[in-house]
From TrEMBL:
Residues 5-67 form the Ribbon-helix-helix domain. It comes from the Bacteria. Keywords: Transferase. The keyword Lyase does not apply. The keyword 4Fe-4S does not apply. One of its GO terms (molecular function) is transferase activity. Gene3D superfamilies: protein bp1543. This is Aryl-sulfate sulfotransferase.
Length: 74
């Protein structure tokens, strides 16, 4: 089992943090690269579209899961 790591990011001028296991983080980095975005930009995009009752870490995991289910490469 992978250890959860806390990471920080600035979104719209506000510093926040999220916690992800390494496999989720690695996939998120790969998705950002595939979309030709910075990781911070992708996290901000996910943050903007997540339901307000979902925390950012959960939203990031769900995004990675949906990406994997769709088999996306772009």
């Amino acid at each position: 089992m992978s250890v959860v790591e806390k990471r920080s990011v600035t979104i719209r001028g506000h510093r926040t943090s999220y916690s992800l296991e390494k496999p989720f983080y690695d996939d998120l980095v790969a998705i950002a690269a595939a979309k030709e975005r910075t990781l911070a930009a992708l996290v901000a995009e996910i943050d903007e579209t997540r339901p307000r009752d979902t925390n950012l870490s959960s939203a990031l995991r769900l995004y990675v899961l949906e990406w994997a289910k769709r088999g996306r490469s772009d």
